[in-house]
Amino acid sequence: MRYLLLLSLTLSYVLADLELSGHLDVEAQAYLIAPDEKHASNLTLKQTLELRYGEGDLSGYAKLYAQEDSSDFLKETKKNERTFFRVDELYARYDLEDDALQMGKSIKYWGALELVNIVDVFNPRDLRTDIFNSQKLGVWNISYSHFSEDGELSLVVKLNEADQKMAADSYVYYFLPQFLHYDEHLQTSNGRNYPSTYLSYSSSVESEYAFDYALILEHGYDSQRYFSRSVLNPLLLHQNSYLVNKVMAYSTLVVDTTLLKLELLYADVIEDKSVGDYSHIAFGFEYTIENIYDKAGLGIIAEYYRYDSYESDKYDDIALYETMQNDIFIGARYSFNNSDDTSVVGGIVHDVEYDEQVYYMEYESRMNEDIKIALDYYYIEPSKSVDTAYASLGRHQRIGLNIAYYF
Fold first, then answer.
1. Which neighbouring-strand residues pair with 218?
2. Number of domains in the chain
3. Which residues span the domain enclosing 54?
4. pTM of the entire structure?
5. How much of the chain exceeds pLDDT 70, in percent?
């Protein structure tokens, strides 16, 4: 409980001067089908604290996160090593009439699709968190944005690359072979402080149909990383990051009650011995039926994802642990449109090439303004013929419950 106590003391100290909000979560997960050597369940305590400060054109924001896994503080023979404290965001922002300058650690959100946002590449993921609801790691950056009637033009410089820590191999979502030791220190081609530069433009077109789009150009380290063994110690595994020139785009188009969505990217890899140029494209739609029953709405969702690498002598999607390389997602969202914001969403992801499936369902609702309840169910039927990322986890079934108190 030491991290939660630390956040509580921080809360008491800054209460008089800052606007505070956050939530406390208790999350329980039971793995009905999982490898025998993994924990069959886990209980996780989480706390998120957000601090805001504003005076005139100057504002500041901080987001702190802490979690504790029950296996780490109970008398377990194997610990998951999922207990930690993290500063997700910490930045200052200065707003002018048509411009904004921001400096610090932050998280950005890019993309349009329901299942996976393939262009949401600015922040790496925390590999100690649930793979089906993974959390982003904040990164240090400087950004300048100009706002006009037509849209927003932004220049963002990421100042360093973050390590991705992993849980212990007793955690059910640890996906590497157990006989290998993972070294969390990232290996980079040009040093971890080589700046990654992003130039983005986003806009909305108001006409008979609502059309939103964004274009992003990047030069710097790729969001896709790969694993390799150490030359000196073949049992030591570490991540590698390499330079790319990358173009990305995403858009949405609303036609009556149908939302059309598109995301695409192309990466020109700059002289890496293991990874070659690649592209990733995803598109889909969501058709909404209003007032099915007592103001409720039903959304029918379909999406397709395609990943292609263009150098056959280098790592392919299997070696890169890419899960959305030739996949169809069919799902639905039922929104009750009540005061509790109750919704149910679920579907099936079918890998066309490797014949594997992921089934899931998520339920969310509020008991009142302060308490939120979420239930989920996931089932993985991995490929029987190819060693995919899901095959490394094995056949899998889980149920989960999250109860969060917001303040």
1. 198, 246
2. 1
3. 2-406
4. 0.91
5. 96
